[in-house]
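Sequence in, structure out.
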Amino acid sequence: MESTPVGPAPGLWHLDPLHSSLIFVAHYLRFGRVQGTFGRARGRVLVAEDPTASKVEVVMDASSVNTGVGARDAHLRSPDFLDVGNHPELRFTSTGVEPGGRGRNAFRLHGDLTVHGTTAPVVLDAQWVGEAPDYAFPDDVYGHFFSATTRIRLSDHGVGDGGEVPWGGRLVGDEVDIVLEVRLQDKDPAPFLQQIGHDA
């Protein structure tokens, strides 16, 4: 018996920033963990007839980093860390899709991640979660949901660690966990985002 195809149909799909979460979790003050997000992003996924030939590109606004503490966010935007004045964007560009991985409908998304102007390879453990019509426009817009995780090193991108803390270790740990909860939709969200005044 043939299995029912899953995932978006071939064609161009768009990141829905209103219903996607681009999360990072970093060690802070050696022992603590801090979670943050990048609130402004745009992305396009070109789904191929052969899903392994699909292409992904996502661009995040580095200045939209948000950990919930204004002073800390300002420090992260500074030359000590992201240096958003000189490196305003973070960018992911896929280089390949590999079937398999942990969980149902899982795959590995290979790509190049550019942070702080420096590019390094990364592999996302990803999973197609499900599909549904748009809540506000069910007759006009359709969406697919994905989850993905990976771990990166700030040193691979030339991002500083804030220096030593008196009790040992560094202000920010080198390893950062990335957790993505993403919705793709078949219509460009830009017109609707402009209509509601959302700065994507």
